[in-house]
glycogenin glucosyltransferase (Mugilogobius chulae), 377 residues
Amino acid sequence: MLCLNPVLNCSQLLSLCPSQCKPPRIIRTRTLTARLDSPRLCSTMSEEAFVTLATSDSYAKGAMVLGQSLKNHLTTRKLVALVGPHVTDCCIEALKSIFDEVCVVNVMDSGDTANLALMKRPDLGVTLTKLHCWTLTQYSKCVFMDADTMVLSNIDELFEREELSAAPDPGWPDCFNSGVFVFRPSNETHEKLLAFCSENGSFDGGDQGVLNSYFNTWATADISKHLPFIYNLSSIAIYSYLPAFKQYGHNAKVVHFLGQVKPWNYSYNAQKGEVKGHSVSQQPGHLHPDYLLLWWQLYAKTVAPLLQKAYGDTPFISGFVQHEEHEATSFHAAPAAPEPQRLSSEERKKRWEAGQIDYMGDDSFANIERKLNTFLK
Ligand SMILES: [Mn+2]
């Protein structure tokens, strides 16, 4: 009998080829060529970056998970976090260990046009903070990603797209969803956006309304600016077209936790590797929604230790449930956990559409899959 026993173990093999120990860093050919051919061009050539925004400490957690997910999938681009004035120093410190650049944005002191826009439309403070991404002119091109998104694979190919590229919004597909978009930083565009904002406001009260009104030819002018839906897969879309999710969902590259309840509103039992915070009547073998669990696994592994380091002895909301026997107490203590109750199908639909998704209960992945199977059989 032929027996294939390895002669060397893995670490011995790796010691023979130390270069294999490091994760591959891909050098962009374009930059390399420019460097070789024209050193002067190189000095003026800007870099590209992924940009996100955190307006609170909670969103900062999301931003950190997003940043870490981009790193885990070996992005070659820079990572930039814009933070609002309410984000605390500890969170900023933790953000700095993941992001190349952390810029505190206070619209109040970011120029005349911004101030004027804010005076006219005080409700658009967060939107104006987001629009600030256009001032990152040290970069030639950027991809903006909401702090409630997470990447599932490398998406550096998005930098081949032009401004303004984005995926359709699941609620109104002639509008793009502003959770993921490609843009070119430009002070001129920034000023125009601010002026537009103060004159016209936002039809939905947020940045998506402003951006869709400003880039108003997106729906019809250039199909190359339509990103495939897999670059911004929102949880809402899973329910609105279940068979499509079953067919294409495994190709998803970016997941977007759209709606009012965010991953950080749940809690997590790190010992058991389980997401907590909703239905207490879980069946045995209950299947967790993959994306929510993935978010928490990433948070527990890399983000929570950074926060712990930044906070030191100061207590902070980690989101972890410590002891199984105290689960009932923890459940009530979790601030965003809604009361468990039986809802009518109509009420559940309403809640889903309002973004209040019962990930761990009625809207759990197991239930979605069961429903899918009844359609497809
Ligand atoms: Mn979002």
Q: What stands out?
A: Residues 146, 148, 179, 256, 258 surround manganese (II) ion (CB under 6 Å).
